[in-house]
Design goal:
Layout (H helix, E strand, L loop, with lengths): L9 H16 L3 H21 L6 H25 L6 H7 L7 H9 L2 E4 L4 E4 L7 E7 L2 E5 L2 E5 L4 E2 L1 H6 L6 E4 L4 E6 H10 L1 H21 L8
The structure holds adenosine-3',5'-cyclic-monophosphate.
Keywords: Membrane, Transmembrane, Transmembrane helix
Protein name: Crp/Fnr family transcriptional regulator
Pfam families: cNMP_binding, POPDC1-3
Length: about 220
């Protein structure tokens, strides 16, 4: 095949070099990977045509690298978008605006989705918090020092004890038919240790939840 175009097949290597160069200065992982993938394409064409017969070793190794890069591009896209989430998962994700889709998937994977077949006490005032809960549907009754209040869906339960490493500040009972996500505190702590970005996101989400709970209370309200 005639590759001269007046410039020679070596032009492909220079074009690939420009894409690689822009890739190396890109700060965004997806952009970097995309540019490197395009560069790989030019290299592969070059290796195919540069000699009398294709340079199979170079084609195989560079092709494999391009394949891995392409797979990682799909992973990064999945981490950044909600494309692959079911409608139900997307509805739950709406409660977690401070998480990237990827962080949310990780958090959800560590959770148990529990539906209450009977009212269930999930924290007891003064006792250690065993699980952090997020109420998705139904309601919860909060009882503290004889005062009662209702908690609606969209709030955490047990986050105060988890954050402060103190016993539960109130007794909370989930209603019959309620649905909640539950995280074992030891497993959650381990997960957050391994994933610092997730720890930051969950910390911010807890803060937001506490602000909403505080905003509902009026000065002089009963403690719950
Ligand atoms: N005033 C309040 N308003 C809303 N939720 C509360 C209030 N007090 C306690 N809770 C919740 O009840 C939980 C009891 O266990 P924690 O103290 O770990 O975390 C507490 C909060 O999730």
């Amino acid at each position: 095949m005639d590759w001269t175009f007046g410039l020679g097949i070596g032009l492909l290597v220079w074009i690939a070099f420009v894409f690689d160069l822009f890739g190396f200065v890109a700060r965004d992982e997806l952009l970097l990977r995309g540019l490197m993938l395009v560069a790989s394409g030019f290299y592969l064409v070059y290796y195919f045509f540069v000699a009398g017969s294709p340079l199979w070793d170079a084609l195989a190794t560079n092709g494999a690298l391009a394949g891995v890069n392409l797979a990682m591009i799909f992973v990064v896209i999945a981490e950044r978008t909600t494309f692959t989430m079911s409608r139900e998962t997307r509805d739950i994700y709406a409660h977690f605006p401070l998480f990237t889709p990827g962080q949310f998937r990780r958090l959800l994977k560590a959770a148990e989705d529990v539906r209450m077949r009977a009212p269930r006490e999930v924290t007891r005032q003064g006792a250690p918090v065993e699980r952090v809960w997020f109420l998705l549907a139904g309601s919860a009754e909060i009882e503290k020092d004889g005062h009662r209040a209702r908690l609606d869906p969209g709030h955490f339960i047990g986050e105060m004890g988890f954050l402060s490493q103190r016993p539960a500040s109130a007794t909370v009972t989930l209603s019959l038919g309620a649905r909640a996500l539950a995280w074992d505190v030891a497993l959650l702590a381990r997960l957050l240790e391994r994933k610092p970005a997730l720890r930051v996101a969950l910390g911010a989400q807890f803060n937001l939840d506490l602000v909403e709970k505080l905003a509902r209370a009026r000065p002089g309200d009963a403690p719950v």
